[in-house]
Amino acid sequence: MLDARRQNADTLRTPDWFKTATRWTQLTFVEDDPEKYDPTFWIDVFKRTKSNAVCLSAGGYIAYYPSEVPYHYVSKYLGDKDIFGALVDAARKLDMHVMARVDPHAIHDDAAKAHPEWVMINADGTPRRHWAYPDVWVTNAYGDYNTVFMPEVVKEIVRKYDVDAVFANRWQGHGVDYSENSARRFKDMFGQDLPMKPDAEDPAWQAFVQWRRRVLTDMIAKWDDAVKAIRPHASFIPNMGGASLMEFDLSVIAKHCPFLVVDHQGRKGLELGWSAGRNGKRIRATFPDRPVVLITSIGPEEDYRWKDAVTSGEEMQLWINDGTAHGLYAWFTKFNGVVPDKRWVEPVADAFALQAAVEPVLESMKPVAEIAVIDPSTTLRHWAPEERHNAERHDLGFYHALVEARLPFELLSDQVLTQENLDRFKLIVLANASCLSDAQNEAIRAYVERGGSVVASHETSLRDEFGKKRNEFGLADVLGAKFVSGPRGIVKNTYVALSGNHPVNEGYEGAERIMGGTRLIHVEPADNATTPFLYVPDFPDLPMEEVYPRKTPEGAAVIARETGKGGRTVYIPWNIGEIFFEVFAVDHARLIGNALRWALGKTPRVTVKGPGVIDLALRENDEGISLSLFNLTNPMMMKGPIRENYPLAAQTVSVEIPEGKSVAKAWLTVTDRAANFSVRDGRAQVEVPGIERLEVVHLTWKMR
């Protein structure tokens, strides 16, 4: 633990403590842990993983210390012990930062009987039993339980124990609460009854989304104020889930949350290996300068739960270190202090060691990129959380195409489209930002006037911020397109035909047409635009004898234009991102890549040539740059868990050298040795002999 002690020495119990909390162990106790778990095992885990911070279960649903707050249920196995306090003391002796975890989403019978207003109410007026454990009750997150009772619990923990923060899990509630209190408060604010189901077209649902956002962000401020009143250096840190910050008032987050926590603990189903890095980018899309911590589970993340199981070591390392590549702090979580299966310890220790090895380079730099994918919070917040993943497929498709194209990029939230934020990038991508306000459209329009470039698709800007469909695209002049009709679909057996010679339709030698989309918008191109692809009019897909086109191609399927201001725009009026993420057609990947490269208008600042699939992340400071290359090349990349790591063959990295500077040194951070490089035409070419899991190319500059 000497490394952790040395790193933390200057920040312990200071307002900047979180800046050196870079490797987290989380232990979530279960009720019988006070009798059964071995604290010496966990202290050894702290040391083996080089963890410099710990998050420990304290209270909420169950207290693991002798609480004196009425109706704060204390573990029946606790006796005269204080397992939370004992581990806090042990961690502090190792100079670790400490965070107390609370979970307020359920209560026991005694509390529910004494305070029925603490229980969430179903639409039929009945109190809500817990969906997984019917012996207890689901709490009303929007009422007195979270605004009166839980602040008392938080204050007790912060008074009694030497902690730096309180972390809340499952604090945001579980859908609509139909209690009289919630119904009255909602009606007083919006003049409507609570919605009966999630429906983006329902004004009541839209109003509930706004009401919930206000209630939750007020709660963050209340809890944080309670913490700081006792320990001024400490904070309340809410679990933000795995999404962007669309559900919160950003001014409250800015004031009260010095760092951000992503709780998307691993892959499930057909989730791709780059998802860990994307989670961090989405949070960073709103607050690019704030540290982001990525929670990783040691077990599988499937709908069937299996919370006490262990996934493969390679899968854990994939998730932790793809986050590492994008500058995210590592955090692993274990449910249950009893450890019948210890196969996770060594992989976590290895992943944390890799994190520690690259931290000195990555922490001194900030993320940069020429391209930003706009995170469409205004669109996505209209969807119910359980359905939102369907709306995100457009963005996921573009994300994967960018990874395949080896183009470093960041995410930028549409909630912060300021000139300063936009002008960090040469090109922005609007995969399907269907809902944009007039002000957001104007910010993008002004960006294009300043020379910025845009790639957009499908319904982008066709709706206002409330989801109401416009008669015309809000960005019609930017897209070079006039709305005619649509969208229509699902349409099968559709195609788009190559039209003329243009960089956007290069690479299709031998083909006259390629697969189209399934949801189509019909548009007219502006006079100054070209159409590299045209729609092939619909024709049947059965009987097979009828599968042939009846008409020649017509109607713009891709619109490309020079803006006259130094930038370029490409608009694809069909669901290319969504259908690419579903089908992964090579031709769609090429079309997206071509559009991005042409719109960028220059050779990318960084290029990487070689075999395999690599997730790239670029960072820089005044002294140099670092390029993280994370190896995703694995037959299980799209469905886990990964069985073994497949080392990657040699790669050639080409980097644009800033004007007035030259290369002082090229270093391979993970293998810890100098890299061979050459300079030609203002670019440094660096040879990377191979990549096991992660390599970070670090170039330092000198003035000419």
Describe this protein's structure.
The protein contains 20 helices and 31 strands. The longest helix has 28 residues, at 203-230. With 704 residues, the protein is of the alpha/beta class. Helix content is 29%, strand content 24%. The model has no long low-confidence stretch (mean pLDDT 94).
Helices and strands in order, then pairings?
Layout lengths: L1 H7 L14 E6 L4 H4 L2 H10 L4 E8 L22 H11 L3 E7 L2 E2 L1 H6 L22 E2 L5 H17 L4 E4 L11 H11 L12 H28 L4 E4 L11 H7 L3 E3 L12 H10 L7 E6 L15 H13 L3 E7 L9 H18 L3 E2 L3 E5 L1 H4 L7 H4 L1 H13 L3 E5 L5 H4 L4 E4 L7 H12 L3 E5 L18 H4 L1 E8 L6 E4 L14 E3 L4 E6 L4 E7 L19 E7 L5 E5 L3 H8 L2 H15 L5 E4 L4 E8 L2 E8 L19 E6 L4 E8 L4 E2 L2 E4 L2 E6 L5 E10 L1
Parallel strand pairs: 1-2, 1-10, 2-3, 3-6, 6-7, 8-9, 9-10, 12-13, 12-14, 14-15, 15-22
Antiparallel strand pairs: 4-5, 11-24, 16-19, 17-18, 17-20, 20-21, 21-22, 23-26, 24-25, 25-31, 26-30, 27-28, 27-31, 29-30
